[in-house]
Specification:
Radius of gyration: 18 Å
Distance between the termini: 26 Å
Number of strands: 0
Shape: elongated
Structural class: mainly alpha
Largest sheet: none
Order of helices and strands: HHHHHHHHH
Helix content: over 70%
Strand content: under 5%
Length: 180
Amino acid sequence: EYDRARTDFRAALGHFESMGNRHGMASVHNNLGRLSMMEGDRDRAFEEHGEALKLSKEIDDMQEMGVALKSLGSLAMYKGETDQARSEYLRAMEVFRRIGDTQGVSRIRNNLGVLEMRAGQLNSALSHFMESHKLKKQMGDMKGLISVSDNLGDLWAAKGDTGRARKAYLEAIEVAERIG
């Protein structure tokens, strides 16, 4: 499946390149980056998202820029580069805020919560998770609510508050059962 997807993305990239469509090129590079991540090739993912970021900056394509920055933040987090990940995530969040992409902001806040929790910054993580939780509820993003509630459970457990951890985990379970 991955080989077929890569072939299709490369064909689309060639098409967009022949037309000079840098938006399409940036989008395909972001997709190739995601595909590379799924395959476990983080170096290639970094290259693809870096190219998407470069192209999106050239044409001021804020959506693709935000996606590339978010992905670069995730790659940095996986590599243990906390400061770099935080920087990329904060840049992505600013982009998503500027274009009014609440979904993007809520995802970044959840990712920042995970990053801060891994770094032992539990109060900062809590702030990010709570904001993400609020946004996901407002948007009706039930799958996202499951993820952030589970993360909140992990955070409360790390803080030693088993009552709040249980409540957060139960919320994740209840929402998952509700949506099937």
